[in-house]
């Protein structure tokens, strides 16, 4: 916020102070305010007790001027710099005019009080925004500063930025992994709370992916680095969250535009408060026009007009919402998505890896006469060995368990929504679903289409060679996820999948979802979402794994990527990334959006309500500068406290 051109009362160069010793920082920030407050209140006491020397106007002026300068000079300087940048109607200009005007009509205490409380409120606002930003960064920025690289028999400690892809790094028990890599040890337990918000240890086995920020909890491990420092999942996520403040919610954008119009209008109205009675007094000799009285009313009007409560508390509310959600393992890419998710009334889930664990297991092999199980498994696993799909991983893992040697596959072509075509030992091999075999005119037993489980069918040459039967299971919180969405009155819940309709229907019945659509290719999912969007009342969130579902994530009103750690597609395409891989966090994300939106609109209502009331009283001469200070600074502080409260409400 400190570097933009909005007329925000904290939008100046002091918003991001340099790091310094705590006691020096305190004196620098609060010393001038304490000095000003001491002189102001001692002056009020001296006048109230009738001290003789204080009755002299020159002494009183000098005393209150000394109280004014510590808090007034920085604001006067900002006002002058704003005017030079052609930003005439900034808060700094309004406060400068109001307080200098108060001195002109000899209302010295009020002039000092306005500037004192304005400066104090501004300082609190800067601190609150700065703390919110630091909290967000601290949630994610747990990247270690050193990495231990194994070179030959030596361990060399260096910066993670200098480690190359393919290097071997060693991580001791209790240390954080500095870079993304592949596990070289047989197995180890890791604390992933920095990435997922979950404290339950996760066991990663040899060849598994280890991510920067994880903590090795039970042994010394070695990892082969697969990504440079700048491209690690943690670095990308940190960049994502830090850039979230750039994507403004509609309420933020409205208030910024509103402040640019609103401030000059009220300045003009303040001038009219003085000018119109003066003109009326010229026309009506019986009307007594006292210049200082009308100037006072105009000054009250000016002080109240500052929109700091709105311009500061609204972004702070979104900062708080983003930070609180981050602690729960939910990353919003900006305040606009926090706002958009609050309006969601339709949630569409991908099935595999989103509602189900996506960790398939081979249950059985079925072959026609003349082909052994080992041959079928070898051919399918050889074709799938370089694929990252969960089903492919399950098949190649099962082949390794049975000690089946794989053959090299060439001319491998992935056919979206169907499977793979490859050449093994000179023969064409097809591995995928029944649609793939139908497309290549390969005959297969029709009963395969009726199996309510996942099957991978194979053809060698142009002949059917059998199939593998696999099963997937629902995630532990999948049923809870659907129940919590229904509790939020989101009843239009759907499942889309490329799996057979029988499999999708089976899972949907277990979850209590009435609308489930199977046999969908990627473009079929896109068409389905487009059909939903034709009804403008539908506000759609699509929840997928962020890899195969990138087009649908981009098409929906809010794209939510599940288990997006390490997935480039998830980070780049989705609007929200759920790090914990828990579908129940979708409801939590929607609640976070609703809570944040409620807090923001509470602040807007409070600020407008109080300001309009005191503006009317000020114009009528019924409010003093003290009430004006409350309407400006007091309401701003109340709004800030309310905005900070969002971090406790999101759980």
From TrEMBL:
It is found in: Cell membrane; Membrane. SUPFAM superfamilies: Calcium ATPase, transduction domain A, Calcium ATPase, transmembrane domain M, HAD-like. PROSITE patterns: ATPASE_E1_E2 (PS00154). Keywords: ATP-binding, Cell membrane, Hydrolase, Membrane, Metal-binding, Nucleotide-binding, Translocase, Transmembrane, Transmembrane helix. The keyword Transport does not apply. Belongs to the cation transport ATPase (P-type) (TC 3.A.3) family. Type IB subfamily. This is P-type Zn(2+) transporter. The gene is cadA_1.
């Amino acid at each position: 916020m400190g570097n933009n051109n909005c007329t925000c009362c904290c939008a100046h160069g002091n918003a991001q102070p340099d790091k310094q010793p705590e006691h020096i920082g305190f004196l620098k920030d609060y010393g001038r305010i304490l000095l000003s407050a001491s002189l102001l209140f001692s002056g009020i006491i001296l006048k109230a007790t009738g001290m003789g020397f204080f009755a002299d106007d020159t002494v009183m002026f000098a005393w209150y001027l000394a109280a004014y300068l510590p808090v007034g000079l920085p604001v006067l300087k900002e006002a002058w710099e704003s005017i030079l940048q052609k930003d005439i109607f900034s808060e700094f200009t309004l406060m400068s005019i109001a307080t200098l005007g108060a001195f002109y009509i000899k209302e010295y205490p009020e002039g000092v009080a306005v500037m004192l409380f304005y400066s104090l409120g501004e300082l609190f606002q800067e601190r609150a925004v700065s703390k919110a930003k630091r909290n967000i960064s601290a949630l994610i920025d747990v990247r270690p500063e050193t990495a231990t690289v194994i070179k030959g028999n030596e361990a060399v400690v260096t910066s993670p930025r200098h480690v190359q892809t393919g290097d071997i790094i060693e991580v001791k028990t209790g240390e954080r992994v500095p870079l993304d890599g592949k596990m070289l040890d047989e197995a180890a337990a890791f604390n992933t709370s920095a990435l997922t918000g979950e404290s339950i240890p996760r066991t990663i086995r040899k060849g598994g992916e280890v991510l920067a920020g994880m903590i090795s909890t039970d042994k010394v491990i070695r990892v082969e680095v697969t990504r440079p420092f700048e491209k690690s999942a943690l670095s990308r996520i940190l960049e994502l969250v830090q850039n979230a403040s750039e994507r403004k919610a509609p309420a933020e954008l409205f208030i910024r535009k509103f402040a640019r119009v609103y401030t000059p209008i009220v300045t003009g109205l303040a001038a009219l408060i003085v000018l119109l009675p003066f003109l009326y007094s010229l026309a009506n000799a019986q009307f007594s026009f006292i210049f200082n009285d009308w100037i006072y009313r105009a000054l009250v009007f000016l002080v109240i007009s500052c929109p700091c409560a709105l311009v500061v508390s609204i972004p702070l509310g979104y900062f708080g919402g983003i930070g609180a959600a981050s602690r729960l393992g939910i990353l919003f890419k900006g305040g606009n998505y926090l706002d958009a998710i609050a309006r969601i009334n339709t949630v569409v889930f991908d099935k595999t890896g989103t509602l189900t664990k996506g960790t398939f297991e081979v249950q059985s092999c079925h072959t026609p006469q003349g082909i052994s199980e080992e041959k079928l498994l070898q051919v399918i696993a050889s074709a799938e060995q370089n694929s990252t799909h969960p089903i492919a991983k399950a098949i190649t893992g099962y082949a390794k368990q049975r000690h089946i040697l794989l053959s090299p596959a060439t001319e491998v072509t992935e056919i979206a929504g169907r499977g793979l075509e490859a050449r093994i030992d000179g023969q064409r091999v097809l591995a995928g679903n029944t649609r793939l075999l139908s497309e290549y005119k390969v005959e297969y037993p029709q009963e395969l289409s009726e199996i309510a489980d996942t099957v991978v069918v194979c053809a060698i040459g142009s002949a059917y060679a059998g199939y593998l039967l696999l099963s997937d299971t629902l995630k532990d919180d999948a049923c809870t996820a659907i129940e919590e969405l229904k509790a939020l009155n989101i009843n239009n819940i759907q499942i889309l999948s490329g799996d057979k309709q029988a499999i999708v229907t089976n899972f949907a019945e277990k979850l209590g979802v009435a609308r489930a659509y199977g046999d969908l290719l990627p473009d079929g999912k896109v068409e389905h979402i487009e059909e939903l969007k034709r009804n403008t009342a539908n506000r759609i969130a699509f929840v997928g794994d962020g890899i195969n579902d990138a087009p649908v994530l981009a098409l929906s009103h809010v794209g939510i990527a599940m288990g997006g750690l390490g997935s480039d597609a998830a980070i780049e395409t989705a609007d929200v990334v759920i790090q914990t891989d828990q579908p129940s966090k979708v409801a939590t994300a929607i609640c976070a959006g609703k809570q944040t939106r409620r807090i923001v609109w509470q602040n807007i209502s409070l600020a407008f309500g109080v300001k309009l009331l005191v503006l009317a009283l000020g114009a009528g001469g019924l409010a003093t500068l003290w009430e004006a200070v409350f309407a400006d600074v007091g309401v701003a502080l109340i709004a800030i406290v309310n905005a900070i409260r969002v971090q406790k409400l999101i759980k």
